[in-house]
């Protein structure tokens, strides 16, 4: 049940990795916006517009997992902080590697994630990104502090609808390393 999976998260240091992995997967699919700290879709009484299984479509999830399994030899996972990854793993990767980073949101990170960044952490990631030779993309909430950290990068800004608890529109940005080109990127979307 959802309650059992939530309890597993509270004891994550003492449970088996496979059990914790399933719990994380289950809560990601059944919590509002996939946020582990959030409540269940539809509420505990399931009287909301959407029910717990709104994002838990078994056939589609099985298809996705099987697709990942097909490409497992090309996928590497590291349990590292972004800066450690960029400094110690990425330098040994081929030049043609595309590094994609999706750090915690700058503004709402503390509300959404168990492990969020302070400004200094975001600045350290930006500095580490600047030090790699591989192609790189970084996605963030589009806020002035992040634009300043990535001021030397071209970027694309776009709007998204969110519905973790209340519906609202937000703006995000993808910053592109200097070795990447985005054909048709409008001048108004590029960093000055």
From TrEMBL:
One of its GO terms (molecular function) is S-adenosyl-L-methionine binding. It holds the Pfam family MethyltransfD12. It comes from Pollutimonas bauzanensis. This is D12 class N6 adenine-specific DNA methyltransferase. Keywords: Methyltransferase, S-adenosyl-L-methionine, Transferase. The keyword S-adenosyl-L-methionine applies. One of its GO terms (biological process) is mismatch repair. SUPFAM superfamilies: S-adenosyl-L-methionine-dependent methyltransferases (SSF53335).
